[in-house]
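Protocol step 6 of 9: fold each sequence in the batch and record its C-alpha coordinates directly after the sequence line. For illustration, a two-sequence batch is reproduced in full.

Sequence one:
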Amino acid sequence: MPDLPDRKTDAAKDAVGPDQPETDTERRRRRAQFLRELAEARALRERVQPRRAKAARLRHAMRMRTFRW
Protein backbone atom coordinates (compact mmCIF):
# COMPACT_ATOMS: atom_id res chain seq x y z
CA MET A 1 0.00 0.00 0.00
CA PRO A 2 1.49 3.40 -0.96
CA ASP A 3 2.34 5.89 1.74
CA LEU A 4 -0.54 8.32 1.99
CA PRO A 5 -0.29 11.62 3.81
CA ASP A 6 -1.67 11.36 7.31
CA ARG A 7 -4.87 13.38 7.51
CA LYS A 8 -4.40 13.97 11.22
CA THR A 9 -1.05 15.69 10.73
CA ASP A 10 -2.43 17.76 7.83
CA ALA A 11 -5.43 18.78 9.92
CA ALA A 12 -3.20 19.57 12.89
CA LYS A 13 -0.98 21.67 10.65
CA ASP A 14 -4.00 23.61 9.30
CA ALA A 15 -5.77 23.91 12.64
CA VAL A 16 -5.44 27.19 14.45
CA GLY A 17 -5.49 27.11 18.22
CA PRO A 18 -7.90 29.20 20.29
CA ASP A 19 -5.10 31.62 21.17
CA GLN A 20 -4.09 32.13 17.50
CA PRO A 21 -6.70 33.76 15.25
CA GLU A 22 -6.81 32.62 11.65
CA THR A 23 -5.14 35.03 9.25
CA ASP A 24 -6.78 36.32 6.08
CA THR A 25 -4.21 34.45 4.01
CA GLU A 26 -5.06 31.12 5.63
CA ARG A 27 -8.79 31.74 5.28
CA ARG A 28 -8.43 32.65 1.60
CA ARG A 29 -6.27 29.59 0.96
CA ARG A 30 -8.84 27.30 2.59
CA ARG A 31 -11.67 29.01 0.70
CA ALA A 32 -9.85 28.69 -2.62
CA GLN A 33 -9.25 24.98 -1.95
CA PHE A 34 -12.93 24.50 -1.08
CA LEU A 35 -14.08 26.28 -4.25
CA ARG A 36 -11.70 24.18 -6.38
CA GLU A 37 -13.08 20.98 -4.88
CA LEU A 38 -16.66 22.21 -5.32
CA ALA A 39 -16.06 22.99 -9.01
CA GLU A 40 -14.46 19.58 -9.47
CA ALA A 41 -17.47 17.87 -7.85
CA ARG A 42 -19.88 19.80 -10.08
CA ALA A 43 -17.91 18.86 -13.20
CA LEU A 44 -17.92 15.22 -12.14
CA ARG A 45 -21.68 15.33 -11.51
CA GLU A 46 -22.24 16.82 -14.97
CA ARG A 47 -20.25 14.03 -16.59
CA VAL A 48 -21.98 11.30 -14.59
CA GLN A 49 -25.55 12.65 -14.89
CA PRO A 50 -25.71 14.86 -17.99
CA ARG A 51 -29.52 14.97 -18.22
CA ARG A 52 -29.96 15.99 -14.58
CA ALA A 53 -27.17 18.55 -14.91
CA LYS A 54 -28.81 20.05 -18.00
CA ALA A 55 -32.15 20.32 -16.19
CA ALA A 56 -30.40 21.99 -13.24
CA ARG A 57 -28.70 24.47 -15.60
CA LEU A 58 -32.05 25.32 -17.21
CA ARG A 59 -33.73 25.79 -13.80
CA HIS A 60 -30.90 28.05 -12.68
CA ALA A 61 -31.14 30.09 -15.89
CA MET A 62 -34.89 30.50 -15.37
CA ARG A 63 -34.35 31.64 -11.77
CA MET A 64 -31.78 34.18 -12.92
CA ARG A 65 -34.06 35.50 -15.66
CA THR A 66 -36.96 36.01 -13.26
CA PHE A 67 -34.87 37.49 -10.44
CA ARG A 68 -35.50 41.19 -9.76
CA TRP A 69 -33.18 43.58 -7.95
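Sequence two, same batch, same settings:
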Amino acid sequence: MTQLTDRPAQTEDRPVQRRPVNRGRKILRIVILGIVALIFISPVIFMIVTSFKTRGDATSIPPSWLPIPFTLQAYEAILSPQSSTPVLRWFFNSMVAALLNSALVVITASLAAYPLARMNFKGKNVVFGIIVATLLVPPVILVIPNYLIVSDLGWLNSLIAIIVPTAASAFGVFFMRQFFIALPVDLEEAARLDGANRLLIFTRIVLPLAKPALATLALLAFLTNWNDFLWPVYVLFSPEVQTLPAGLSTLQGANSVRYDLLMAGAVVASIPVLVIFVFLQRFIIEGVSRSGVKG
Protein backbone atom coordinates (compact mmCIF):
# COMPACT_ATOMS: atom_id res chain seq x y z
CA MET A 1 0.00 0.00 0.00
CA THR A 2 2.86 2.35 0.82
CA GLN A 3 4.41 1.77 -2.56
CA LEU A 4 1.15 2.55 -4.29
CA THR A 5 0.73 5.79 -2.38
CA ASP A 6 4.36 6.83 -2.92
CA ARG A 7 4.29 6.51 -6.71
CA PRO A 8 1.96 9.44 -7.36
CA ALA A 9 4.07 11.63 -5.09
CA GLN A 10 7.19 10.69 -7.03
CA THR A 11 5.54 11.46 -10.35
CA GLU A 12 4.28 14.82 -9.10
CA ASP A 13 7.80 15.85 -8.01
CA ARG A 14 9.31 15.08 -11.40
CA PRO A 15 10.18 18.15 -13.43
CA VAL A 16 8.15 18.55 -16.60
CA GLN A 17 10.31 17.93 -19.64
CA ARG A 18 9.69 20.30 -22.54
CA ARG A 19 10.79 19.86 -26.09
CA PRO A 20 13.70 22.14 -26.85
CA VAL A 21 12.79 24.97 -29.20
CA ASN A 22 14.92 25.04 -32.32
CA ARG A 23 15.53 28.78 -32.57
CA GLY A 24 17.64 28.43 -35.67
CA ARG A 25 14.81 26.78 -37.57
CA LYS A 26 12.35 29.41 -36.33
CA ILE A 27 14.62 32.26 -37.44
CA LEU A 28 15.12 30.61 -40.83
CA ARG A 29 11.37 30.30 -41.25
CA ILE A 30 10.87 33.99 -40.44
CA VAL A 31 13.61 35.00 -42.89
CA ILE A 32 12.10 32.92 -45.70
CA LEU A 33 8.61 34.33 -45.09
CA GLY A 34 10.06 37.85 -45.00
CA ILE A 35 11.80 37.34 -48.35
CA VAL A 36 8.62 35.95 -49.94
CA ALA A 37 6.59 38.86 -48.56
CA LEU A 38 9.15 41.34 -49.89
CA ILE A 39 8.97 39.77 -53.34
CA PHE A 40 5.20 40.18 -53.43
CA ILE A 41 5.24 43.70 -51.97
CA SER A 42 8.12 45.05 -54.08
CA PRO A 43 5.94 45.95 -57.13
CA VAL A 44 3.61 47.93 -54.86
CA ILE A 45 6.57 49.70 -53.25
CA PHE A 46 8.05 50.51 -56.65
CA MET A 47 4.67 51.85 -57.83
CA ILE A 48 4.41 54.19 -54.84
CA VAL A 49 8.02 55.32 -55.14
CA THR A 50 7.71 56.02 -58.87
CA SER A 51 4.62 58.16 -58.31
CA PHE A 52 6.79 60.61 -56.33
CA LYS A 53 9.51 60.84 -59.00
CA THR A 54 10.03 63.42 -61.69
CA ARG A 55 9.31 62.56 -65.31
CA GLY A 56 12.96 62.00 -66.11
CA ASP A 57 13.71 60.03 -62.96
CA ALA A 58 10.73 57.74 -63.59
CA THR A 59 12.20 56.63 -66.93
CA SER A 60 15.84 56.47 -65.89
CA ILE A 61 17.85 53.31 -66.58
CA PRO A 62 18.71 51.61 -64.33
CA PRO A 63 15.66 52.53 -62.23
CA SER A 64 16.20 53.96 -58.78
CA TRP A 65 14.31 52.91 -55.67
CA LEU A 66 14.43 56.36 -54.08
CA PRO A 67 12.66 59.42 -55.55
CA ILE A 68 15.44 62.00 -55.89
CA PRO A 69 14.19 64.67 -55.83
CA PHE A 70 10.92 63.92 -54.03
CA THR A 71 8.05 65.64 -55.83
CA LEU A 72 4.24 65.69 -55.96
CA GLN A 73 4.09 66.84 -59.58
CA ALA A 74 2.38 63.65 -60.77
CA TYR A 75 -0.43 63.93 -58.22
CA GLU A 76 -0.84 67.64 -58.91
CA ALA A 77 -1.10 66.90 -62.63
CA ILE A 78 -3.80 64.21 -62.38
CA LEU A 79 -5.78 65.67 -59.45
CA SER A 80 -5.83 69.28 -60.61
CA PRO A 81 -9.30 70.62 -61.55
CA GLN A 82 -7.78 71.99 -64.78
CA SER A 83 -6.43 68.56 -65.77
CA SER A 84 -7.55 67.07 -69.08
CA THR A 85 -7.93 63.73 -67.31
CA PRO A 86 -10.59 64.05 -64.56
CA VAL A 87 -9.19 61.37 -62.24
CA LEU A 88 -11.20 62.60 -59.27
CA ARG A 89 -14.39 62.31 -61.32
CA TRP A 90 -13.43 58.80 -62.40
CA PHE A 91 -12.68 57.95 -58.79
CA PHE A 92 -16.10 59.18 -57.68
CA ASN A 93 -17.86 57.26 -60.47
CA SER A 94 -16.03 54.05 -59.59
CA MET A 95 -16.80 54.47 -55.89
CA VAL A 96 -20.53 55.03 -56.47
CA ALA A 97 -20.79 52.15 -58.95
CA ALA A 98 -18.84 49.70 -56.78
CA LEU A 99 -20.74 50.53 -53.58
CA LEU A 100 -24.19 50.30 -55.17
CA ASN A 101 -23.30 47.14 -57.07
CA SER A 102 -21.91 45.42 -53.96
CA ALA A 103 -25.07 46.35 -52.03
CA LEU A 104 -27.28 44.87 -54.76
CA VAL A 105 -25.15 41.71 -54.92
CA VAL A 106 -25.43 41.19 -51.16
CA ILE A 107 -29.22 41.70 -51.21
CA THR A 108 -29.96 39.45 -54.19
CA ALA A 109 -27.50 36.73 -53.18
CA SER A 110 -28.74 36.48 -49.59
CA LEU A 111 -32.40 36.45 -50.64
CA ALA A 112 -31.75 33.72 -53.21
CA ALA A 113 -29.40 31.64 -51.05
CA TYR A 114 -31.58 31.37 -47.93
CA PRO A 115 -34.41 29.39 -49.59
CA LEU A 116 -31.86 27.12 -51.25
CA ALA A 117 -30.25 26.45 -47.86
CA ARG A 118 -33.25 26.16 -45.53
CA MET A 119 -36.46 25.58 -47.49
CA ASN A 120 -37.60 22.40 -49.19
CA PHE A 121 -39.38 22.82 -52.51
CA LYS A 122 -39.64 20.88 -55.72
CA GLY A 123 -36.69 21.39 -58.06
CA LYS A 124 -34.46 23.04 -55.48
CA ASN A 125 -31.40 21.00 -56.42
CA VAL A 126 -32.02 21.62 -60.11
CA VAL A 127 -32.23 25.37 -59.57
CA PHE A 128 -29.05 25.37 -57.51
CA GLY A 129 -27.29 23.22 -60.11
CA ILE A 130 -28.21 25.66 -62.89
CA ILE A 131 -26.95 28.60 -60.83
CA VAL A 132 -23.63 26.86 -60.15
CA ALA A 133 -23.35 25.83 -63.82
CA THR A 134 -23.41 29.49 -64.86
CA LEU A 135 -20.08 29.91 -63.08
CA LEU A 136 -18.53 27.85 -65.86
CA VAL A 137 -19.64 30.33 -68.54
CA PRO A 138 -16.83 32.80 -69.46
CA PRO A 139 -18.01 36.35 -68.69
CA VAL A 140 -16.80 37.63 -72.08
CA ILE A 141 -19.54 35.56 -73.77
CA LEU A 142 -22.18 37.68 -72.04
CA VAL A 143 -20.81 41.02 -73.23
CA ILE A 144 -22.87 41.24 -76.44
CA PRO A 145 -26.20 40.02 -74.95
CA ASN A 146 -25.81 42.35 -71.97
CA TYR A 147 -24.90 45.22 -74.29
CA LEU A 148 -28.06 44.70 -76.34
CA ILE A 149 -30.20 44.58 -73.19
CA VAL A 150 -28.60 47.71 -71.75
CA SER A 151 -29.01 49.49 -75.09
CA ASP A 152 -32.72 48.60 -75.29
CA LEU A 153 -33.22 49.88 -71.75
CA GLY A 154 -31.50 53.18 -72.59
CA TRP A 155 -28.77 52.75 -70.00
CA LEU A 156 -25.77 53.27 -72.27
CA ASN A 157 -23.29 55.92 -71.14
CA SER A 158 -24.66 55.90 -67.57
CA LEU A 159 -23.47 54.34 -64.31
CA ILE A 160 -26.60 52.18 -64.18
CA ALA A 161 -25.10 50.12 -67.01
CA ILE A 162 -22.25 48.95 -64.76
CA ILE A 163 -24.31 48.67 -61.55
CA VAL A 164 -27.39 46.60 -62.42
CA PRO A 165 -26.32 43.91 -64.97
CA THR A 166 -23.95 42.19 -62.53
CA ALA A 167 -26.21 42.53 -59.48
CA ALA A 168 -27.30 38.88 -59.74
CA SER A 169 -24.16 36.97 -58.77
CA ALA A 170 -24.10 33.19 -59.10
CA PHE A 171 -20.99 33.03 -56.98
CA GLY A 172 -22.71 35.15 -54.34
CA VAL A 173 -25.64 32.73 -54.19
CA PHE A 174 -23.30 29.76 -53.87
CA PHE A 175 -21.15 31.51 -51.25
CA MET A 176 -24.08 32.59 -49.07
CA ARG A 177 -25.82 29.21 -49.36
CA GLN A 178 -22.74 27.47 -48.01
CA PHE A 179 -22.64 29.88 -45.08
CA PHE A 180 -26.36 29.52 -44.31
CA ILE A 181 -26.06 25.73 -44.31
CA ALA A 182 -23.25 25.95 -41.76
CA LEU A 183 -25.39 28.00 -39.35
CA PRO A 184 -27.14 26.04 -36.56
CA VAL A 185 -30.89 25.71 -37.01
CA ASP A 186 -31.73 25.74 -33.29
CA LEU A 187 -32.29 29.49 -33.12
CA GLU A 188 -34.49 29.45 -36.20
CA GLU A 189 -36.60 26.60 -34.84
CA ALA A 190 -36.99 28.36 -31.51
CA ALA A 191 -38.11 31.55 -33.27
CA ARG A 192 -40.56 29.54 -35.39
CA LEU A 193 -42.06 28.05 -32.24
CA ASP A 194 -42.51 31.58 -30.89
CA GLY A 195 -44.56 32.47 -33.97
CA ALA A 196 -41.97 34.21 -36.14
CA ASN A 197 -42.41 33.87 -39.89
CA ARG A 198 -39.69 33.20 -42.44
CA LEU A 199 -39.06 36.86 -43.23
CA LEU A 200 -38.70 37.79 -39.57
CA ILE A 201 -36.35 34.87 -38.95
CA PHE A 202 -34.28 35.83 -41.96
CA THR A 203 -33.95 39.52 -41.09
CA ARG A 204 -33.66 39.28 -37.28
CA ILE A 205 -31.70 36.04 -36.77
CA VAL A 206 -30.01 34.79 -39.93
CA LEU A 207 -28.64 38.04 -41.33
CA PRO A 208 -27.03 39.20 -38.04
CA LEU A 209 -25.31 35.82 -37.76
CA ALA A 210 -24.17 36.09 -41.39
CA LYS A 211 -22.31 39.41 -41.01
CA PRO A 212 -18.88 37.85 -41.78
CA ALA A 213 -20.15 36.26 -44.98
CA LEU A 214 -22.04 39.40 -46.00
CA ALA A 215 -18.93 41.55 -45.45
CA THR A 216 -16.79 39.11 -47.44
CA LEU A 217 -19.24 38.99 -50.33
CA ALA A 218 -19.58 42.78 -50.31
CA LEU A 219 -15.82 43.18 -50.53
CA LEU A 220 -15.48 40.65 -53.35
CA ALA A 221 -18.29 42.34 -55.29
CA PHE A 222 -16.70 45.74 -54.66
CA LEU A 223 -13.33 44.56 -55.95
CA THR A 224 -14.88 42.95 -59.03
CA ASN A 225 -16.76 46.09 -59.99
CA TRP A 226 -13.91 48.43 -59.02
CA ASN A 227 -11.36 46.58 -61.17
CA ASP A 228 -13.67 45.90 -64.11
CA PHE A 229 -12.21 47.27 -67.32
CA LEU A 230 -13.81 45.58 -70.32
CA TRP A 231 -17.49 46.25 -69.61
CA PRO A 232 -17.14 50.00 -68.80
CA VAL A 233 -15.15 50.50 -72.01
CA TYR A 234 -18.10 49.08 -74.00
CA VAL A 235 -20.96 50.96 -72.32
CA LEU A 236 -19.40 54.25 -71.11
CA PHE A 237 -18.38 56.75 -73.77
CA SER A 238 -17.97 60.27 -72.38
CA PRO A 239 -15.10 61.11 -69.99
CA GLU A 240 -17.53 62.45 -67.36
CA VAL A 241 -19.05 59.02 -66.69
CA GLN A 242 -15.93 56.88 -67.09
CA THR A 243 -14.73 54.71 -64.23
CA LEU A 244 -11.19 54.70 -62.93
CA PRO A 245 -9.79 51.58 -64.71
CA ALA A 246 -11.15 52.67 -68.08
CA GLY A 247 -10.04 56.24 -67.48
CA LEU A 248 -6.52 55.21 -66.53
CA SER A 249 -6.25 53.35 -69.83
CA THR A 250 -6.99 56.65 -71.57
CA LEU A 251 -4.32 58.29 -69.43
CA GLN A 252 -1.85 55.63 -70.52
CA GLY A 253 -2.69 56.14 -74.16
CA ALA A 254 -2.29 59.90 -73.97
CA ASN A 255 0.91 59.76 -71.90
CA SER A 256 2.61 56.54 -72.88
CA VAL A 257 5.97 57.56 -71.39
CA ARG A 258 4.69 59.44 -68.32
CA TYR A 259 5.18 56.57 -65.89
CA ASP A 260 5.01 58.99 -62.97
CA LEU A 261 1.41 59.88 -63.93
CA LEU A 262 0.49 56.25 -64.48
CA MET A 263 1.88 55.18 -61.12
CA ALA A 264 0.15 58.07 -59.36
CA GLY A 265 -3.16 57.03 -60.90
CA ALA A 266 -2.56 53.44 -59.86
CA VAL A 267 -1.89 54.55 -56.27
CA VAL A 268 -5.14 56.50 -56.21
CA ALA A 269 -7.01 53.47 -57.55
CA SER A 270 -5.54 51.12 -54.93
CA ILE A 271 -6.27 53.28 -51.85
CA PRO A 272 -9.97 52.32 -51.38
CA VAL A 273 -9.22 48.63 -51.78
CA LEU A 274 -6.49 48.70 -49.14
CA VAL A 275 -8.59 50.74 -46.71
CA ILE A 276 -11.63 48.48 -47.03
CA PHE A 277 -9.53 45.35 -46.64
CA VAL A 278 -7.88 46.70 -43.47
CA PHE A 279 -11.25 47.33 -41.83
CA LEU A 280 -12.96 44.14 -43.04
CA GLN A 281 -10.14 41.58 -42.89
CA ARG A 282 -11.49 40.04 -39.65
CA PHE A 283 -14.89 39.44 -41.25
CA ILE A 284 -13.26 38.16 -44.44
CA ILE A 285 -11.21 35.51 -42.66
CA GLU A 286 -14.20 34.38 -40.57
CA GLY A 287 -16.57 34.37 -43.53
CA VAL A 288 -14.28 32.34 -45.79
CA SER A 289 -13.42 29.86 -43.05
CA ARG A 290 -17.06 29.23 -42.13
CA SER A 291 -18.54 29.15 -45.65
CA GLY A 292 -16.82 25.88 -46.52
CA VAL A 293 -17.66 23.99 -43.34
CA LYS A 294 -20.67 22.15 -44.66
CA GLY A 295 -21.96 21.56 -48.17
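Proceed to step 7 once all outputs are recorded. Observation for sequence two: The CA atoms of residues 171 and 220 lie 10 Å apart.
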